[in-house]
Amino acid sequence: MNDVLKLDGLVPAGLRPKTHKIVLQDLVLPVDIGFHAFEVGNPQRLTVSVEVWLEEAAFASRDEVACAWDYDFLRSEIIAIAGARRYNLQETLARAIYELVAARHGVAALRVSTRKPDIYPACAGVGVDLASF
């Protein structure tokens, strides 16, 4: 007997998902970033968030690993990009991450955000957002 409850056909058409999104939120990385003399060679904390809207066919439709979008790939590639070189600007790093994710199969829309959380004491962070919308 199948242990999975089947509810196919019970969700009204108006309540079916219209978007499918995965999120990697606030990945904290030490990054050699900034153009001020005191920043060069002194890695800073940087948070990276990525929101990926997927085409329906690219969103897992079954509870199987083979159907899933690979969060490990996303995390490890962002870490690799951030550590591959020094950056003067958050815009440059954000663009590199954006291009990596945008090139993946099934991506319908995308937002990449970076933040330096330690710049101003009365501010949660300063950064940039890139979005396809």
3D architecture notes:
- This protein is of the alpha+beta class and 133 residues long.
- The protein has one domain: GTP Cyclohydrolase I, domain 2, CATH 3.30.1130.
- It contains two helices and four strands, in the order E-E-H-H-E-E.
- It has helices spanning 71-83, 90-102, and strands at 20-31, 44-54, 107-116, 126-131.
- The chain is elongated, with a radius of gyration of 19 Å.
- It starts with 19 loop residues before the first strand and ends with a strand.
- The mean pLDDT is 90.
Detail the topology: elements first, then pairings:
Layout: E1 20-31, E2 44-54, H1 71-83, H2 90-102, E3 107-116, E4 126-131
Antiparallel strand pairs: 1-2, 2-3, 3-4
Helix pairs in contact: 1-2
Could you tell me the strand content as a percent range? Answer: 25-35%
CATH architecture: 2-Layer Sandwich
Number of domains: 1
Distance between the termini: 46 Å
Order of helices and strands: EEHHEE
Mean pLDDT: 90
The total count of strands amounts to 4
CATH top level class name: Alpha Beta
> What's the CATH topology name?
GTP Cyclohydrolase I, domain 2
Specify the number of helices: 2
Q: Enumerate the strands of the largest sheet in spatial order, edge to edge or round the barrel.
A: 1-2-3-4
Going by CATH, the homologous superfamily would be GTP cyclohydrolase I, C-terminal domain/NADPH-dependent 7-cyano-7-deazaguanine reductase, N-terminal domain
Instruction: Describe the main β-sheet briefly.
Output: 4 strands, antiparallel
**Quick one: overall form?**
elongated
Uncertain segments are none
Task: Please identify the structural class as seen in this structure.
Answer: alpha+beta
- Radius of gyration (CA) equals 19 Å
